[in-house]
Amino acid sequence: NYVQLRTYEQRLKFARENVAIQKRSLGLAEARWRTGRSTELDVRQARSSLAQTEASIPPLVAGRRQANNQLCTLLGMPVSDLAVGMISAPIPGAAPEVAIGIPADLVRRRPDVRRAEQQVAAQSARIGVAEADLYPQLSINAFVGFVGNDFRELFESKSYTGLFFPSLSWKILNYGRITNNIKVQDAKLDESVYQYQQSVLNAGREAEDAVVGFLQAQEQAAHLEDSVRDAQRSVELVLLQFESGVTDFNRVFNTQTTLVTLEDQLAVTRGNISLNLIQLYKAIGGGWLCFCDGQGLPASPTVQASFGSPAPELPSPEPPAATPAQQHPSMPAPSNQ
Question: What was the pLDDT predicted at 317?
Answer without folding.
Answer: 33
